[in-house]
Amino acid sequence: MPVSSPLLPFSKLECLIQLVRAGATLDVSTTRYAQTPAHIAAFGGHPQCLVWLIQAGASINKPDCEGETPIHKAARSGSLDCISALVANGAHAE
Length: 94
What we know:
mainly alpha; Serine Threonine Protein Phosphatase 5, Tetratricopeptide repeat; 48% helix; globular
């Protein structure tokens, strides 16, 4: 019989919400690549997380260490849903 975990029922979005409620910063950057949660959600193809981050006030035009913004990451991964969410919320597409 598999061992159940209290975290298994949580989606990526629910985990993100819990992290922010616990004090995680919306625009915190990774130390190695300077990527924010918006970069990671966009590259991972998680539009629900990305929309939630945008509505919570995350920066969507902040570049990472390569100069790429979340819309670049969404394009790189081929996530049209993430691209649409970013464009609809004012992401710079140039």
